[in-house]
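Researcher: Re-running this chain for the archive, since the previous output was lost when a drive failed. Same request as before.
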Amino acid sequence: MRWAFFIDGGMSLEKDLIKTIGEEAKKLSQRHHAYHNTLELEHIRKSNRVSNPGDKELKIPAYWSSEKKFNPFYVHKNRRQIAHSIAKKIQNGTYEPNPPQKMEIPKASGGSRTVTIYQIPDAAVSTLIYQQLLSKNKHRFSSFSYAYRNDRNVHFAIQDIAIELKELSRVFVAEFDFSKFFDSINHSYLYRQFNENGFFISEREDSVIKSFLKSKNVGIPQGTSISLFLANIVCWKLDKGLEQVGLKFARYADDTVIWSHDYQKISMAYDIISNFSKEAGVEINAKKSDGISLLCRKDMPSELAQRKEEIDFLGYSISVDNVSIKKSSVNKIKRQISYTLYKHLIKPLRGNKLVAIKIPANNKDTHLLSAILEIRRYLYGNLNDQMIANYLNGKSNRIFFKGIMSFYPLINNEQQLKELDGWLVTAIFKAIRIRSKLLKKWNFNRDNSFPFNIPHKDLTTAFKQQKVKGKKLLQIPSFFTIYKALKKGVTDKGIAGVMNPTSNGYNY
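Model: Regenerated structure tokens:
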């Protein structure tokens, strides 16, 4: 989509703002409707498995009531008046965003990051500026920069790294981590980049950018579109420095991995990173930076004490042979599945009394069915094994990937996926054993009925054969099965055709 720039006049600006504010409000209202629908579906599912599911509790963000311009329904209704007012302020050079809400979001690596939530009209201004700046400046960014662009994404980075490393049996890699990247950026350094590196930024765009940064002496706010463009501008000099000495790299925001078969060249990476750190005001996190290592197979010799068989980048682990789901992401997936099994099969039986529980009878366990269905939705999205089989054998050409595995369309470590399948079967088996013991404590012995009488080795086959209302609803979902469908999808449609649409914002 081509966006009119501010120089096209006030009417064009106001028209663009009406459109962007409307889209921003619609996106948030649809998200709220989706949350409401999910809540309703979960309530229905709970009602089917317990006799007293309790009341459904619909929540809205607390800040909606603090200022009505946080409320998407109000903003969408009044978008024309709001856009008219903001357009006049931008034209007069008096526009400033209203005070935002701030939230602390825990980081997987420890600590937290501050996310800034602007009122919807201000978020729309930020989005409009971001789109305009990107449309006329993206050709200036490095082809090795993958974040916050409409022509690059996280999986393109993974693919490019994997292809490069596969051609090398041994390669030197450099990995550095920055401390509080967004929070620490030096404004003077940022503003210099506006003028020094050939970026097209109008006076009005410059004014709006500075209005978003006015409340801070250093750093750029996380959670708003305009900061995405600014983050790439800040790193332009870093990217250029790495390119000039002939280093290969992939950068996604402040996550960067650098590689070379030449040790002398890879050693230059530290100086380039260090100089950038000092100029931009962003400290290198020594504790989380692995520095320079030799990446090679386990059976290969190494002249460096620091060697590794794989590197972690975003949610993936990449070696010279395979692309895998990284260990911490695997653990997160396992925790989610384990909690689902606990929630459905174990937790209801632990307590001083049984409340609203359907006891297994006649080879039927509604709680087990609910657990399997939830795990399938988690892995597959809205797909089931029959739909996947139809796609793989060519009976169906149309398929949509939305489960957790759609965040990993490029994995090819089949051994890892088969091990995950084995882990899942064992986790289900163990949960059933615990459930059986807990049922006995309540004087319900079900040892001779399904699923409690199925040995571990027969679990997959027995669950596949057991039908519920004529359907194979208990078939255990498979990491390897969805991987095969994703692999075919990438070949048929490309990465963008199968990846989860929220991949670029996913917390790997």
